[in-house]
Amino acid sequence: MSRGSIGLSPELNDYIVKAHAPEHPVLRKLRQSTGRMSMGDMQIAPEQGQFLAFLVRLTGARLTLEVGTFTGYSALAVALALPETGKVVACDVSEEWTAIARAHWEEAGVDKKITLRLAPALETLAALETEGEPGRFDFAFIDAHKPEYDAYYEACLRLVRVGGLVAFDNMLQGGDVADHGARGASVTAIRALNAKLARDDRVEAVLLPVGDGMTLARRVK
Ligand code: CA
């Protein structure tokens, strides 16, 4: 669903990917090997990795959070963009997928910047709230279990500082958000969250047709 950007012809998608600076060699290797896996579509598209890295540099982020790590592409893209002292706290439940992630983080020399927390993300987010200062994160990327997005959002909003950013992936659900006949748990949850974000005065949010739809929500209070 997210191997390219929604609604673009394959040719135009390919053009956009090539219009960016070359992918880091370890990112490229990870994208290609994950693409051969049966669950490979869960990986973000390369232009989304470029976009996340851009946002991290633009905002001067130092401490970042990721909900849903899979084989580690987005955490690697973010870690490469962070300063030497920067950190990613990465949440996932899969030993198998994150073993692939760890190997590539090490190969790229950024493993010391990434702390993997293997547990249900809502448990890790609750633990992070009690472990340190609230509002200490600069940036959070949410790309895990869609029916729990709203709960991830509420926790991330408490963990991210005022002025910090919460980014969400798959906010267009392959176009199903605009299909009234689509009633699955994921699309229903994402549709409700899109509606909530539009009237949530705690954030300023934009929904972009990048990948399968990325929302950026900046905490304003
Ligand atoms: Ca995704």
Task: Please state the structural category.
Answer: alpha/beta
**Termini separation:** 33 Å
Query: What's the helical proportion of residues?
Result: 40-55%
Characterize the biggest β-sheet. 7 strands, mixed
Give an overview of the whole structure.
Helix 3 packs parallel to helix 4 (73-81) and helix 6 runs parallel beside helix 7 (149-159). The chain contains eight helices and seven strands. 42% of the residues lie in helices and 19% in strands. Strand 4 (137-142), helix 7 (149-159) and strand 5 form a beta-alpha-beta unit.
Give descriptors for this structure.
221 residues, alpha/beta, Rossmann fold, 7-stranded mixed beta sheet, 7 strands, 42% helix, 19% strand, binds calcium ion
Sequence-ordered SSE layout with sheet pairings:
Blueprint: H1 10-18, H2 25-35, H3 46-59, E1 63-67, H4 73-81, E2 87-92, H5 95-107, E3 114-118, H6 121-131, E4 137-142, H7 149-159, E5 160-168, H8 185-198, E6 203-208, E7 214-219
Parallel strand pairs: 1-2, 1-4, 2-3, 4-5
Antiparallel strand pairs: 5-7, 6-7
Helix pairs in contact: 3-4, 6-7
The structure holds calcium ion.
Write a short abstract of this structure.
This protein is α/β, with parallel strands linked by helices and 221 residues long. Helices cover 42% and strands 19% of the residues.
